[in-house]
Amino acid sequence: MNIRAQKQYYRILMGLLTAIGILLLTLVICLIATLVSPKSDSSENDTAEAVTDAEKEPVGSIGQGVVLAETPDAGQAYQDKLIFVGDSLTAHLIHRGGLTGGKATKQVWRTENNMLNLDGKVSSAKIIYPETGELLTIADAAKKAKPEMIIITLGTDYGVSYLTEKDFKACYTGLIQGIRKASPDTVVILQSIFPVTATCTNKTLTNEKIDICNEWVKEIAKDCGCPYLDTQSVLKGSDNALKPEYSSDSNYQNDDGIHLTATAYSVILKYIRTHAYTPAA
Known about the structure:
The chain is of the alpha/beta class. It contains 10 helices and 7 strands. It has helices at residues 3-36, 42-56, 75-79, 88-91, 93-96, 138-145, 159-162, 165-182, 207-224, 262-273; strands at 82-86, 108-109, 126-128, 135-137, 149-153, 187-191, 228-229.
């Protein structure tokens, strides 16, 4: 091979080696970028985790999985078996609900600030366990109490306004899974989200959105085998909004059109007693 041919050979060889080196360097950079890429913020991770948890295992089936039909009034004995879990409207049962024990009732599981958001943290949120006053997750409280029935009412705080259908269902389903795992014999009953007044000041919380979310709650009930209470139906007027006489607007200055009167809670409890859950034969 003459000198000219040798030089040409070496130029081709060096070109190939350079191209291979660049390709390998590019692959290494892509691998490093994948390993150290920044994670999303905690709230997004919470919701994503809830979606993953809800999709990774099926929910057991206890209950009828249908809208509860009208029944004869099941009476005080039935009402006294119920544990109520939910957002601020559920917490207000303590003061306005007419439950056994009045303000000392042990039937309402509420957070310290009376707000239980339907979001990615709902399963890890701590409620005040009435028997001891300690802070427990809802699942841990269910494990201790082994209640016969739990009525869940969620969505007014955060869920209706901000969650997509997928995240709404995933967060709700994850909570049901946790309760079922902790207390397999407890019947989990899902209650509709309550309507707001036509003049509600929270513009992200509308009756149109609530109606959509209640359909999601019904679908969750069907998928999870949970009974569903359509309580919202007796609280609405012809305008599809909370009846004025059930709104605490007239009793509490600067109310927002969301909160309920003692009369409204009386109507709610009567509906629950006259749409009682009975195990399938």
